[in-house]
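Residues determine shape. Take a concrete instance:
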Amino acid sequence: MSNIADIQRLLTTEDPEFREWIEEHHRCENRLNELCTKKEVSVDEEIEEKTLKKRKLLLKDQMAERIRSYEASHVA
């Protein structure tokens, strides 16, 4: 199983922490989409947007590292 999408599905099923990262990533994405559709954003919302983008990136990095680690430990 070397397909990244397959590994991601497997980790989402078997790794509760990975699943939580996925869910939080989706929540960040949804909130960012909400903020992007607003005609005007407050200063607090601008700060929230920057914070969400950083958090989303961190989650993506964590998930990618977990996938790499899984790949490395399951080499045939």
Notes: The chain has a mean pLDDT of 94. The two ends are 9 Å apart (CA to CA). Residues 4-73 form one domain.
